[in-house]
Input
Amino acid sequence: MENAKLDTQMPLEKPLRSVLDERQIPYILCSVDSKDGKKSVRETTIPKGWMQWTYDECVKYNQYKADPKCQIMNINLDKGNMMIVDIDGGNIESLTEKYGNSDITYSINRKMPHLWFEKQPDDPYTTRTKVNGTDVDYLYKNVFESVNSVITNHDGFFDEFDWDDYIGKPIQKEKKTNTSK
Output
């Protein structure tokens, strides 16, 4: 009985790639270069126009054309109906408390949290960096993750990102009218 109690207290972990495949979120495999201990994506391993591909087209590319030594996944968040709160610094504990601590992966270089959310259908936003002058980015287009990334605290479902609470309603720009004749 004590073992069962231990199991329920352990964080839920799953390979990120399995989650992407289950949800059919498009991603392609790409390579990285390392310089001075920092990894950067080798742009020549990313085919032009891939962000328009379906999940099945990405699977075919990954199986037949991607370099088998690829270590990175370039994930199409937009087509996957996902967004990520990318924490690049600051008080990590406070920020994970603010946004929640479920569905977490860690960045390739600095091992900082990526908090995964499902995008609400009416969310009007796109990627925003340094939100309110902080070390937090809201990623809507794509994200790079290691092929060996594990998503922790994942119960099989993603919380929706409450953009109205975190960002607020978009400000409508007034149309300028031409008053001179």
